[in-house]
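Sat 14:20. Reprocessing the chain from the morning session after the first attempt stalled halfway. Input below, unchanged.
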Amino acid sequence: MQSGSRTEPCLFVIIGVTGDLARRKLFPALFQLMEDGLLSARCRILGVARDDRMTDERLRALARAALKGFGPKTKVRRWCASVLHYQTIAETTAIGYRELAGRIAQLDRLHGLGGNCVLYLALPPSAVEPTIEALGAAGLVRGRGFTRLVIEKPFGHDLASARRMNALAHRHFGEAQIYRIDHYLGKESVQNLLAFRFGNALFESAWNRDHIASVAITVAEELGVEGRARYYEQSGALRDMVQNHLTQLLTLTAMEPPAAFNADSIRFEKVKVLKSVAPIRNNVVIFGQYGPGREGRKRVPGYRQEPGVPARSMTETFVAMRLAIDNWRWQGVPFYLTTGKRLARRVTEITIDFRSPPVALFRSVHGCATHANSLVITLQPNEGFDLSFEVKSPGEQFTLQTQHMDFRYAEMFGRDLASGYDTLLVDVVQGDQTLFVHADETEAAWRLYTPLIGKVRPVHSYAAGGSGPAERARLMKSAAHGAARR
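Finished this time. Tokens:
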């Protein structure tokens, strides 16, 4: 989150470079950051994968296709030719990683990178632990400059595996070298949540159980599994979204003011929130799975009809749950977490429903009903804030009407916000861990959700393109006002 400072040159080693993540996110982010001068022009990228048919030039062609529309063709071609290199590695063999270490050293000397290296694991979950072990065995941990390891979520698949992964990573890397990346935390609107809360006494003074009736955090997706059935069958929505993205938003929404704006202080407060969450009972969790339905005018298949999904799969594509945070600030305030695929619209938002006025001042006025104030923080798309409030309608009859004040980043600043990866990649090079997930956080989150994993539970069907299972309604009574308002 440090801004305005120039970064040191370094080598980005992307292990798993032929995968979807590099094409869709990493190449565009690195290209834009170097073009904007936020990363040193001397930075270089070494792509690593098992494909022995891939070469430097083929990788550059792949990157040029990924960067179509990100700049003039000549500029993109020049960038790819000067920045991108490729190294084949077979499985996780010692010889292959020694050869990788040699190639890293060669590029470092050739481009004067000062020994600075970012090892980015763009890998499926099953490959992460053996790769960390191989990197450590090959001596790719400490050099003349900095060495930093970037791990994509999921960080384990339950509490035991998260502990095992953390222990393995700590055998070879210090926690200060490890950057567990959740791209939601890099979004400008997520960072602004901290500024909104702690920079405005108006809201922070009301950010407690005395004034707030409920909090609803929603991450809804229009798309289905999109060819990721093999991964999704092993994860489901609970592991894929709730344990990381939604839980991170929960901690940022509910945390106490940190002592300082740095990684350790913020992490300490986030972990305190997780430790204050009451054990989650089965009767406050709804699981769902999308069936056939419509996406606009197009018919779409149900989850069990997706390629690679077993015909009797009970994997959840939807989760809604109610949490209780037992501390002085939030005791008695329900927190609703909801996520699902193939829903009516794509949105990530935090809805704060305030308590109704304690005095029924207008009860004696016929037809004059009051509604509680509501604050909606939209993280995607169309990032911004909406605040509802009551006003008297014009005319002789005394009636109240709900109006809204809104703020939109695009309208105010006249440009699209950077992706989360842009922000986070700069932070990795600068050594700023504020927006990354600490080992303590991963284990504290898994401690909450592991009891829900592996149990036989009902998975309710819902039509693709709808709002989720009907059973969700019983959890959401306290949040109904915020949803109806929209």
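The chain has two domains: 11-152, 185-418+438-485.
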